[in-house]
Design brief:
This protein is α/β, with parallel strands linked by helices. The protein has 13 helices and 19 strands.
Length: about 425
Amino acid sequence: MQIKQSVAFHTLGCKLNFSETSTISRMMEQEGFVKKDFDDIADVYVINTCSVTDNADKECRYLVRKIQQKAPSSTIVITGCYAQLKPKEISEIPGVDLVLGASEKFNLGQHLTGLVKSNQVARIHSCEIEEVTGFNASYSFNDRTRAFMKVQDGCDYNCSFCTIPMARGKSRSDNVENVVKNAKELAGKGIKEIVLTGVNLGDFGKGQDGLEDKDSFFDLVKALDNLPEISRYRISSIEPNLLTDDIIEFVANSKSFMPHFHIPLQSGSNKILGLMRRRYKRELYAQRVESIKKLMPHCAIGVDVIVGFPGETDEDFKETFDFLHSLDVSYLHVFTYSERDNTLAVEMKEVVPIHIRNERNKALRNLSYMKMQYFTEQHRGQNRKVLFEIENKNGMMEGYSDNYIRIMVPFKQEWSNGIVDWTI
């Protein structure tokens, strides 16, 4: 009787990476591998990497060293964005056996066939990013409550700070029919909420194979809303210039799409937005927030913002701070700018010192905390629908209201994976 090989996965970065890791993991189980936790001893370790920050690069190297210490004879595979951008650099990390670029990560089982652990430089299976044109549908679910479903990949924007187009290729999408099919499949697994994810979600419709009439993101939203099997949807992140009034109005009147948007801003200074090569100005962003709040005063709005971009003066940062302070938004995801090879920004002068970047990050994180406190306080006493998760955390359970307020209550088994009317 043949002993089955075991495989363990670790994901760095975004929800998109998590959805892909989850799908690759299921594919490996179908091919006969036994899935193990990353902290366990396994025959194969797969690290799905990110390229957005320097930390992701460093963490990848740290994880490889950690695996070598506990399981020196195990095979180590690196895939994901960092693997596409710097395959040669990764292949030279001691202990790495296989590097899979963007076109090959979903062929993991095939590449492991016949692979023997050696002390030689790792095998690289990659290609020029322009050759990556296919779309691989994927989704992740950990607690049988909420799932992250990838419906779009790649990006045709060329923001001056970003490596994603080089790591993931051109914008391409699933089609509406297939997304609906996957949503029904998730419903059959007990999922109550689906979070739609992508690199540039509002660009859904580009790169759809074999379709003459391309579906738009609005088409997708309407089709999913007609699906009774799924109770709740969230839109993970959408560019302000692609968030149309039609989408906002539809969400406002939908029973299934939650009153919750996450809209990247990156800077509240038009000067910095121009240097970043963003496709909008702060005035358009303010209009989008105003439109949402006019129709849905209770709507949660999250914001991505980058501090310390080259050329960002104290006045520019104050402009961003004051703009965010004035906006009726609920929370911020704050990123400290880090230099990335092969981007336009890395060549820009007037570099902001690290300690100032960190100070600005802290100031905006404090602002985010106050924003979320204020948003929650506005809804105190209101009745909102909360989806509670399954996990018992030391006698407590948590869930999120329709408008993304986190609720912690004593654990009740009958509320697990249930939507409960709750007074905030």
